[in-house]
Amino acid sequence: MHHWEVIPLESIGPVQLGMSQEEVRAVLGEPSHTEQAREKWGLSFPDRDCFFRNAFQVSYNQELRADFIAVSQDRDYIVTYEGLAVHTTPAPELVRAISRQASFDESYREHPRNYWFPKLYLNLFRSDGESEFFDTMGICTPEFGSK
User: According to the lineage, what is the superkingdom (predicted)?
Assistant: First the structure.
């Protein structure tokens, strides 16, 4: 089992923001699913590779450099933030830990399902705003976060 640390504005485990698609695939292997850039419902969706049964996703900019990394819980890895397991730490405790570095945007349109920490370009997502745990953590580049 892999143990991967989240470093905002930098990396989740072996995948660093700014890596080329080839570099990402070299450290994670072949993706279990890929999506080509497309337009749908008037929105732009970037190229994306999905690994570990689609639980670890990497989106790329036009130069095919990683600009968004999202991780959901999977049996093959544990993701931590300052030593706390992201997917099994109670939501309020995880939010407090991250808030020691930067505050979240309480006015964010999807809050409390989605906690956006704009200074860290980090988000936490849960499908139900009342869930005890977050489903997904993501980090992105400032360019991706400003879209």
Answer: Bacteria
